[in-house]
Design a protein that fits this description.
The protein folds into 2 domains: about 120 residues, NAD(P)-binding Rossmann-like Domain (Rossmann fold); about 210 residues, Dihydrodipicolinate Reductase, domain 2 (2-Layer Sandwich). About 30% of the residues lie in helices and about 25% in strands. It has 11 helices and 17 strands. The longest helix has 19 residues. The protein binds nicotinamide-adenine-dinucleotide. Nicotinamide-adenine-dinucleotide binds next to loops.
Length: about 400
């Protein structure tokens, strides 16, 4: 089997997990890293034990030994880096959100399809075995449909006003902050597990910390680093949001997102209820799936290869009781991505759970509907998504 070459652009917080996941596959070589300067790239290459480094992403894309580009830059660089990679005929695994806005996302989706390359967005929670278990229970009719989908994605690492990063700067992070950064994961997961599409939304957004203090160094995700003299910055984007949802089958939903909620570290929770049972999965207790019933005792399903459905089994790597984690789920998505690339990256060969640029674009349409809803004073807004071959679905 041919070893594929991976090149990564943007060696920050999440990049380390892309490199780790790729190395665990065994048949992909981490060829090169591109950073914002030659010095920072060389430093990171040494840290990650990668031979080649570039101070310019275009040089990395031109490297003939690099077949797959991983884009882990801040959001405003997703479009130029990914578009340049597609123009060079390279496969792309982009971190979320796909781009700064839905228009950029749509252009990337269309360019990727036209280029006939693999195109993946790391909505990595899809790689959890019990997420796939919940999805297969819905598909197999075990819930008897889906009437209600609710949950939250809550974090606390931005509680301190001394934490400031590109995420709070609309020119780098996008107009939305918390919704785009982590609400995007929740919306993707809700659609993926339920098999439904979010049709319209009613959103209430707020900025609980309106002034942040910037030291000149962008705070890394989940870090509390805050040294040196600080400049006060007025923050416009939301750090808290509550949203009502209507799905395309008439199901209703609700979710909350916040990154300033003390005690909530990476608290993603998704619950859906059909007529027969409810299913609830929590990222922080990811080896358990709660099954709620009206006419029988509730139960807790453990992540155990002998218990899960055949579809979910390929996402499990350890026996029951052996905990699997965030990094294992991330690796599952990366494994599916490389399997797809090796299988020709066609619509027919795509593993069903693998999130593509179309999913990334779709979620950006959902988030933008929430921004429009709030801006209009809290009214229902349709999701304006344009499928790959024309025609607006709304
Ligand atoms: N899937 C997930 O769960 C997850 C988790 C964290 C971050 N992310 C996403 O990953 C992306 C990066 O987030 P992060 O937290 O790692 O950010 P980060 O700030 O820690 O890292 C970004 C890196 O990009 C580098 N960079 C900036 N300009 C560059 C340029 N011109 N060329 C090359 N590199 C450049 C920065 O120096 C930094 O090393 C974001 O889009 C974010 O939304 C996803």
């Amino acid at each position: 089997m041919r070893t594929l070459g991976m090149g990564l652009v943007g060696p920050g917080f999440v990049a380390a997990h892309h490199i780790d996941a790729v190395r665990r596959l065994g048949d992909v070589e981490v060829v090169a890293i591109a950073g914002s300067t030659e010095q920072s790239a060389a430093r990171k290459a040494q840290e990650y034990k990668v031979d080649r480094s570039y101070g310019d992403f275009k040089a990395l894309i031109a490297d003939p030994d690099v077949h797959v580009i991983h884009n882990t830059t801040p959001n405003h660089l997703h479009f130029p880096v990914t578009m340049a990679a597609l123009a060079a005929g390279k496969h792309v695994i982009s971190d979320k959100p796909l781009a700064l806005n839905s228009e950029e996302g749509r252009q990337l989706r269309d360019a990727a399809i036209a280029a006939n390359v693999g195109h993946v967005v790391t909505f990595n929670y899809r790689g959890n075995p019990l997420v796939q278990q919940a999805r297969s229970m819905v598909v197999n009719g075990e819930t008897d449909g889906v009437a209600f989908v609710h949950g939250h994605y809550l974090q606390d690492w931005m509680t301190d006003p001394n934490v400031y990063s590109w995420r709070s700067d609309p020119s780098k992070g996008g107009t939305s902050s918390a919704l785009g950064d982590i609400g995007s994961h929740w919306c993707d997961l809700a659609e993926h597990v339920s098999g439904l599409k979010i049709d319209s939304v009613l959103a209430d957004l707020s900025t609980v910390v309106p002034v942040r203090f910037y030291s000149g160094a962008s705070a890394q995700a989940f870090s509390q680093e805050h040294a040196g003299n600080r400049t006060a910055i007025n923050v416009q984007s939301e750090d808290l949001a509550s949203v009502l949802l209507r799905f395309n089958n008439g199901a209703k939903g609700a979710f909350s997102v916040g990154q300033i909620l003390p005690g909530h570290k990476n608290d993603l929770q998704l619950e859906l209820s059909g007529r027969k049972c409810s299913l609830m999965w929590r990222q922080e207790v990811q080896n358990e799936l709660w099954i709620g019933r009206h006419d029988q005792p509730n139960s807790m399903m453990a992540k155990d290869p002998s218990l899960v459905s055949p579809d979910a089994r390929r996402y499990v790597h350890l026996p029951g009781g052996h905990q699997e984690s965030w990094a294992d789920a991330f690796r599952n998505v990366i494994r599916d991505a490389y399997d797809w690339i090796r299988d020709g990256a066609t619509a027919e060969t795509k593993p069903a759970p693998l999130p593509t640029f179309d999913d990334g674009y779709r979620v950006s349409c959902v988030i933008e509907a929430m921004l429009r809803s709030h801006a209009a004073g809290g009214v229902w807004e349709k999701v304006r998504y344009i499928p790959a071959h024309g025609g607006v679905i709304d």
